[in-house]
Amino acid sequence: MKIVVVGTGYVGLVTGTCFAEVGIDVVCVDIDHKKINGLENGIMPIYEPGLEEMVIKNHEAKRLQFSTNLGEAIKGADVAFIAVGTPPGEDGSADLKYVLAVAREIGENMNSYGVVVTKSTVPVGTAEKVNHAIKEALAKRGVDIDYDVASNPEFLKEGAAIEDFLKPDRIVVGVSSDRAQDIMAKLYKPFTLNGHPVIFMDIPSAEMTKYAANSMLATKISFMNDIANLCEIVGADVNLVRKGIGSDPRIGTKFIYPGIGYGGSCFPKDVKALIKTATEKGYNMRVLKAVEEVNESQKEVMFNKIVAHFGPNLAGKTFGIWGLSFKPKTDDMREAPSLVIIEHLLAAGAKVKAFDPVAMEEAKHMIGNKIEYCTEQYDTLKGTDALILATEWPEFRFPNFVHMSEVMNDKVIFDGRNIYDAKDLKEKGFAYYGIGVL
Asked: Within a 10 A sphere around the Cβ of 167, how many other Cβ atoms?
């Protein structure tokens, strides 16, 4: 079986590499010549644990190839995955221009039956648009080639994408023909040996499933942040509340950790896109609008605590930030809460020093030279008036507090992820501020 994956971003590269890992011949296609040249030389465009080694291994084994020529790659392909970006428009809708451009190019070059699969996160109805684009391109060529369109949304967690793909808890595929279902079942058979089957459904339901899943997780996060804020007001400890409700199997322990808001490439974009889809259909997504509102305000919570401690004028103050990426084990800075905090600190006249294990280069692209980037976590604290913990990387969990108190000007910690013990730090002489704890 030969498959083509169009797009070598986070989803496309992980998808293509994991299929190659089980012995399938894969061609990953991208219009970015620099990115393709880099991949051919073992240079990754993204950070994802375990990905680099797997790419190099399968490329050397010639199961994983890279190309900028979709016209050549698509010939003879059994399955073509469209995994290009769907950036949000100004109105929150998903921009499908890249998806449809790929669909047209597939129609212009395919020479045999194949299944064209939308892997990108796309709104309900996109498969119909993809089908129309392919059909139109074939008509212009004056050829009649049979094909199917399918939807196969991804459910990969950044930082654990390889494990998620190789050992999935579920695989969702939307199809409109038995032939397409048979091919997709065959393709995914190596990944279902852990007892989790492929869930086949109609295409609109598959497209909706992706948005519904991410929106539900975003809802849990915003709900818990709302509860955390109320806990501070009434004198409750959200960490104890979280344990109390998490023991209920109907609720569970995942995604109920309070913090400074969600970010990344999925949750913010997908919540906006689902709200926009509903609006276009005349329906008001009241819960999701509240989820989005809570998340935006939650990114302000830590700065508000800083102002409450130091006052609104932060001129002459220096803050050290641990963690810049929106979550651990990724260099993804999109919609990261750290960006909001940094923006407010700079506007208030403060100086900022920061350290992140892998996201420093990406941060430089987004922030520039407005802050100081440190190469070691404790260097970030030298001469600072406070530490802000923005991302819960494992190496930040058990720091040397004695050393910290020696190099910091003032012993103040703003813990945006509640990874430290408030009582313990206060006994060590630190002023401690968490989320939903007193």
From this structure: 11
Residues pairing with 65 in the sheet: 27
End-to-end CA distance of the chain: 59
- Give the active site residue among 18, 28, 231, 266: 266
Rg (C-alpha) for the chain, rounded Å, is 24
Q: Choose among 366, 189, 346: nearest CA to 263.
A: 366
Q: Taking all residues of the chain, what is their mean pLDDT, rounded to a whole number?
A: 95
Q: Which CATH number fits domain 2-201: 3.40.630.10, 3.10.560.10, 3.40.50.720, 3.20.20.80?
A: 3.40.50.720
Ramachandran angles phi, psi of 327, nearest 5°: -155, 165
Confidence at residue 196, expressed as pLDDT on a 0 to 100 scale = 78
Residue 30, C-beta contacts closer than 8 angstroms, at least 6 positions apart: 6, 7, 8, 12, 36, 66, 68
Long-range contacts of 33-37 (CB under 8 A, 24+ apart): 33/68, 35/8, 36/8, 36/66, 36/67, 36/68
Q: Which of 40, 394, 288 is nearest to 8 (CA)?
A: 40
pLDDT for 195: 78
Pairing of strands 198-201, 351-355: unpaired
Q: For residues 383 and 111, give the distance between their C-alpha atoms in angstroms, rounded to a whole number.
A: 65
> How confident is the model over 176-216, as pLDDT tens digits?
999 999 999 999 999 988 777 899 999 999 999 999 999 99
Q: Which residues contact 221 (CB under 8 A, 6 or more apart)?
A: 255, 259, 261, 262, 267, 295
Residue 329 contacts residue 395 (beta carbons within 8 Å): no
DSSP 180-225: HHHHHHHHHGGG-TTS--EEEE-HHHHHHHHHHHHHHHHHHHHHHH
pLDDT in tens, 93-129: 888 999 999 999 999 999 999 999 999 889 999 999 9
* CATH class as words, domain 239-433: alpha beta
- Count the neighbouring beta carbons within 10 Å of the beta carbon of residue 37: 12
Which residues lie across from 322 on neighbouring strands? 355, 389
Q: Provide the total of helices (H) and of strands (E) in the chain, helices listed first.
A: 16, 14
Q: How far is CA 205 from the centre of its chain?
A: 22
Q: Examine the residue annotation and report whether 28 is marked as an active-site residue of this protein.
A: no
Q: What is the pTM (predicted TM-score) of this model?
A: 0.90
- Calculate what percentage of the chain has a pLDDT beyond 90: 93
Cβ proximity of 158 and 264 under 8 Å: yes
Q: Where in the chain is the domain with CATH 3.40.50.720?
A: 2-201, 239-433
Contacts of 251 (CB under 8 A, 6+ apart): 245
Query: pLDDT by residue (tens digit) across 328-350?
Result: 999 999 999 999 999 999 999 99
